[in-house]
Structure formats: structure tokens, C-alpha cells
Amino acid sequence: MKPVRCDRTPAWGELKACFEASGQNFDLREAFSRDPHRFEAFSQDAPHVFADLSKNLIDADSQALLLALARQCGLESQRDAMFAGERINRTENRAVMHFLLRNPPSAQYIPAQVAINKVADAQAEVETTLNAMLDYAEQVRADEAITDIVNIGIGGSDLGPQMAVLALGEFATAGKRIHFVSNIDGDELAAVLRLVKPENTLFLVASKTFTTTETMTNAHSAKAWFEAQGGHDIARHFAALTTNVAAANDFGITTTFGFWDWVGGRYSLWSAIGLPIAIAIGAAGFRDFLAGAHAMDEHFRTAELAHNLPVRLGLLDVWYRNFHGFSSRTIAPYSSALRRWPAYLQQLEMESNGKRVDQDGQPLPFDTSPLLWGEPGTNGQHAYFQMLHQGTSVVPVEFVAIKQAAHAPDDLPGHHGKLLANVLAQAQALMQGKVDAGGHRDFPGNRPSTFLLLERLTPASLGALIALQEHRVFVSGAIWGINSFDQWGVELGKVLAKDIEPRLQSGNISGLDGSTAGLLQRLR
Ligand code: F6P
Q1: From the centroid of its chain, how far is CA 457?
Q2: 197 tagged catalytic
Q3: How far is the CA of 63 from the centre of ligand 1 (A)?
Q4: 15 pLDDT more than 70
């Protein structure tokens, strides 16, 4: 079925009418008193993740219309086209097959196009590369002389691996410190170089393209530092993770792990870009991480839409953005290990769906990606939750809670119970509100939230949680009819920076606007 843009479907108009008739005045408190089974009806079990969606501004009617919208947009055929290896990233003429990186070798499922086009045997290539990468990870883990691993990369070559390494700290090998350097600000690299010794350090230069200015600048400086300190064995102390192996070789790095153009940067932590994760948690742990994601892939690929968690979340995102007009979503992981979860999701959602034209390049008459922001709980409570409870804008909150703490509860009695009490209380307070002494002390309530619950934060559950988010972004992007897999919006600033850099030296301001010229002169 050919995809249809959401605003051209009958369901779009019906959703508008539904919003005007009842959606805009929907009251969660009334909905719970009307329906004693609301929690069961609006919750969903998926691999490794339980989701309570019942504190969202939806009912059976709006949900049924959202599901109709998904069908009329051809969501299932769009999903199947991705899993069939079709070139759904049309502006870059690429397939989108990050799911193949976590497809176990035993699985029968191989994208039809890959088989038909005989683009080698992608699955076999994936497995060979994965085996080589994991062998290398084990070698590094066993090498006592290597105490520090410095990952140099930015965007998808930093955010995912960094988030996962922090999240899985409990599973990480002792004796290895993993540092992440992303910013072109030399202060960041300098701070790490002060901590490490060349003979004990492995630099991983992580860049899909091997051209990104930040990463190349940091990699050159790291190599210069290494050589200036007397280091000479580049093959032992530098490895490159890239689709551009030739450029890595030209740079002087011979230890390389490749991947493919059908892996988008923000979807690349399952590939060689995941090497820091594999070094941290080992080959078996990394395979568990992939297996958790694969279980979520299978759920997304096969569960009927009404019981498909990525679908339900993606449809809720469309309902909130396009009908309620909510422009942002707060990410609230109640886990300090997930402290980089909001930053990771920002790239995943906003670089994927921050688009203003459809697949055909036509301007969209509706909004797309919301703004994502957040901090771990309980910290956020003592910063911006005031605004969530009593501000003028409604911001849906996405909580993540973990039933079992990583630390032994007897070692630190009380902490985890207090943490869980807080996450439950915040979701409850947002919904229930409180009529108090009036004015300043009243809480309006009826503020929506989603509650994602994991039994434990493990490689498998983290893998599933990430894949859930990848697919949820796919769903809203498919409904909106946009290309979620390109990122042309990052290009202009890169080009202008190249023009400006020499002007900072020369002072040439010709052709610049008044503000840029004025600032440039002050910065010289
Ligand atoms: O500038 C955006 C971007 O292209 C991201 O999509 C990507 O994750 C990041 O830069 C890093 O790119 P690379 O891995 O090629 O260095």
C-alpha cells in the first residue's frame, strides 16, 4: 500500500472532530472513575518493558481513530518496507537496516531486497564484523596494560555509546576507564589527556564518515599528543570505527572496524560504533544487548497495531503534537545510570523528525518533532518540575523507573524505595492535582505522563528500551510522511563555520551580516 500523508486521510479529520468534541476537555480523573479497568486497557507489555499509558489524554475513541490513522497512512507497509531492506531513506537513496545488526545469525529473517539484490550476504557480513569487533573487545579487556579507553566521536558516534556505557556501569569490567571526547572545544580533550598515559591508552576514533570536523580535529590532536609523548605504536593504541575505512587508513590507523551506509549515525551504537560498550560489558553482554533490541524488533514487526508498544507511543506523540498542540516532552529517567538518556533521545527524535517538508519535499501544514528535554529524577523535581505542575504550558512527561536497583538494597537501605515513591508520586501529582488554599497553592492536575517500567537495567532491557524508542520515532515519522533518516538541517552551519574560521585569523568581514561581523571582530 502506498503511504498516505496523515493530513490527507479521513481519520485526520475525524481526529480533529474528536479532539474538538471531547479530546480537548478530557479529564484523566473522570476517566479513571468512569472505567475501573483503565489501567489494564491502556497499559502494554512488550519485551523487557512494561508501559503504563493510562495517565495519558486518550480514551477508546481517540485510540481507535489513531489506529485508523496508522492504517490509512500505510504504517504497516512502511514498516515492512524498512524490514524488507527497501531504500526508504529516499534523499540519500539508502536502505535503513540497523535492525539487521541485532538479527541473530540463527534467525531465518533476512530482508528480501538484500537477498534479491545479492548485496553480498549482509547478514553474514554483519556477523563476521561483529565477531571481529567482539574478539577485539575481549582482547582489550584482557590487556592489563590498557587502563584507559578514549572514544573520540560526536552525535551518534558519541551519544549512544556514552549513554549505554554509563547505563550499564554495573556490568562493566573493573580496571578500564572509558572516556568520551566529543566537543571541538579543546578543553574537553585536554582534560582527558591530563588523566591518561600514552602507553596505557587506547583511542577509538568513531566516525561514520571519518570527515566530521570535531572528530577529525580531536583525533589529529590526540595522535599528535601520543607521538609527542614518545608513543609510536599507532596500530596498538588507535582503532577506527567507520564506514570509511580508506580515510582511516590515510589518517594512519590500521586497526579498523567497519559498518555500512544503511546504518544511520543515530542508529549506529549496534555496529562497530558500539565498541566502547563491548569493551565495558564484554562480548556476552553485548550479545545480550543486541538480543534485547531484537526482541523489541520482533514485537514491532509482528504485534498487531493495537497491542504494539512503539506504535501506541508514536500515535500518542502525533495526538499530542498535532491535536493538543503540545510542543515538548520531558524525559524523566528515575535512574542516575540513565543520566544521558535525555541527551541520547534528543538526537534520536529531533534529528530524525525535526523536518518541515514531506518525503516529496512539499512543505508540511502541521507540526512534527516536539522538543525533548529532561534530567534524571529526582534531580529534575528540584529544578523544573514546578513548571510541569503549575506552569501555563502542558508538557507530557515520560518517566522511566527500574524495579530493582543496581546496588544491594541492604548496603544503602531506603534509597531505592524513596526513589520509586518519588516517581510514582510525581506521576500521581501531575494527574490528580490538588485544590488547596487557592491561587499559588493549587495544582490544576490532568497533566499527562507515560510510565515505562523495567525489572532491572541490564544489557538486554536497555537494548529493548532503545529499540522501542527507535521504532516509536519511526512510527510518528511515517504518519507525518517525512524522511526520518536524513539530517540535511545540520549542513548549513558546518559550511558557514568553514568560511568563518579563516576570517577569525584574517579579520576579513566582507559579505558578512552586521551582527556576525561585529561579533567576529570582538572575538579576534
Ligand atoms: O552532524 C550530524 C551528524 O551527521 C550526525 O547525524 C552524526 O551522528 C554525527 O554528525 C557524527 O557523524 P560521524 O559519525 O560521521 O562523525
Answers
A1: 16
A2: no
A3: 36
A4: yes
pLDDT in tens, 51-80: 999 999 999 999 999 999 999 999 999 999
- 382 in catalytic set: yes
| CA 242 to ligand 1: nearest atom | 14
pLDDT 10s digits, 359-391: 999 999 999 999 999 999 999 999 999 999 999
Unique residue bearing C-alpha cell 496523515? 6
CA of 345 to the centre of ligand 1 (A): 15
Q: Are 350 and 396 contacting, i.e. CB atoms less than 8 angstroms apart?
A: no
Whether the CB of 212 sits within 6 Å of ligand 1: yes
* Catalytic residue of the set 382, 407, 415, 498: 382
Q: What would the DSSP string read from start to end of 104-127?
A: -TT-----HHHHHHT-S-HHHHHH
Is the pTM value of this prediction over 0.85?
Answer: yes
Question: Closest Cα to residue 52, out of 370, 298, 316?
Answer: 316
> 99-280 falls under which CATH superfamily?
Glucose-6-phosphate isomerase like protein; domain 1 (3.40.50.10490)
Which atom of ligand 1 is the closest one to the Cα of 273? 14
Q: Is 299 among the catalytic positions?
A: no
Say if CB 292 and CB 460 are below 8 A apart: yes
| Residue written as grid cell 577509538 | 204
Task: List pLDDT tens digits, range 297-331.
Answer: 999 999 999 999 999 999 999 999 999 999 999 99
d(CA 70, CA 73): 5
88 contacts 82 by C-beta, under 8 angstroms: yes
Q: Does domain 6-72+303-407+422-484 have CATH number 3.40.50.10490?
A: yes
Choose among 315, 347, 360: nearest CA to 476. Answer: 315
Q: Length of the chain, please?
A: 524
Q: Which of 89, 92, 154 has most ligand 1 atoms within 8 Å of CB, for mutation?
A: 154
* Selection from 67, 32, 125, 86 nearest residue 446 by Cα: 32
Instruction: Please name the residue whose Cα sits nearest to atom 9 of ligand 1.
Output: 155
Q: Which three cell numbers stand for residue 10?
A: 479521513
Residues of the chain with CATH 3.40.50.10490: 6-72+303-407+422-484, 99-280
**C-beta of 151 in contact with ligand 1 (< 6 A):** no
